[in-house]
Design goal:
This protein is α+β, with helices and mostly antiparallel strands. Helices cover about 35% and strands about 30% of the residues.
């Protein structure tokens, strides 16, 4: 079953001041995400009223693929620079499609 993960990011004031550089860091992090087995794609959306509020919309083949990716990100090999641009830890929500709705 396909999974959609929403990773909500809040950029730090310093990072928000240089939005393009901050999004370049996010883009660099997502290169590895997109290459990870089971990733069907990622999009980045930016809040029109608050550009420091960024959401990464990830699509995964399964919950197991997403779990494997999250576990990898907690290893030294999977560590990213994302924390450099954030004001607080990201928030993760995961969803499946409601059939028949």
């Amino acid at each position: 079953m396909t999974l959609v993960s929403l990773l909500e990011l809040t950029l730090s004031p310093e990072a928000a001041a240089d939005h393009d550089a901050s999004l370049a860091v996010v883009s660099q992090v997502l290169e590895a995400t997109r290459a990870f087995e089971g990733c069907l794609g990622c999009d980045v959306v930016v809040d029109v009223d608050d550009p420091a509020h960024v959401v990464v919309v990830e699509r995964w083949e399964s919950l197991e693929h997403d779990d494997a990716y999250r576990a990898w990100r907690r290893t030294p090999e999977g560590a990213s620079r994302l924390g450099e641009v954030l004001a607080q830890p990201p928030s993760l929500s995961r969803f499946t499609t409601a059939d028949g709705v």
